[in-house]
From TrEMBL:
Keywords: Magnesium, Metal-binding, Methyltransferase, Transferase. This is SABATH methyltransferase 9. It holds the Pfam family Methyltransf_7. It comes from the Eukaryota. GO terms for molecular function: metal ion binding; methyltransferase activity. One of its GO terms (biological process) is methylation. Signal peptide: none annotated. The keyword Transferase applies. InterPro entries: MeTrfase_7 (IPR005299), MeTrfase_capping (IPR042086), SAM-dependent_MTases_sf (IPR029063).
């Protein structure tokens, strides 16, 4: 990603990244995003066990999501050697949430962002069932 963006920027240009991340030292599975993706994976695996999804398609699926800690992001930028970090801010998305978020809301947000990726790989026929199971 960083190599590709470096080729696009003009000399002296600046890039702003807004991306998911994880607090330093927090295992991915203990983050909200990690738990959501684990549930989505479980839904997909259940459908595979029931013969609704081809196991080879599941095995070849790669969800291009990266959630790095600030330290990991610094290391990636340093290793890439095309950019420098001028400023890094961490936000708490929960700080704007006044009430608990319902499962249907999480499901709709995840589906809005991921449906295209799943449809392209698995076809559109499984999408409704996959996100129905995820929500339940």
């Amino acid at each position: 990603f960083l190599d590709a963006r470096a080729k696009e920027l003009v000399a002296g240009g600046m890039m702003v990244l807004i991306m998911p991340g994880i607090p330093f030292g927090t295992p991915h599975s203990q983050t909200v995003a990690g738990m959501l993706f684990d549930l989505l994976e479980a839904s997909l695996m259940d459908m595979t066990k029931e013969g609704l999804v081809n196991e080879e398609l599941v095995d070849s699926f790669n969800l291009p999501v990266c959630a790095a800690s600030p330290k990991e992001m610094e290391e990636l930028v340093e290793e890439n050697d095309c950019f420098s970090i001028e400023r890094m801010e961490l936000t708490n998305p929960k700080s704007k949430v006044e009430t608990p978020i319902k499962a249907v809301t999480y499901t709709r947000h995840l589906r809005a962002g991921m449906e295209g990726i799943f449809s392209k790989h698995f076809g559109t026929g499984i999408i409704d069932e996959l996100f129905y199971r995820f929500e339940k």
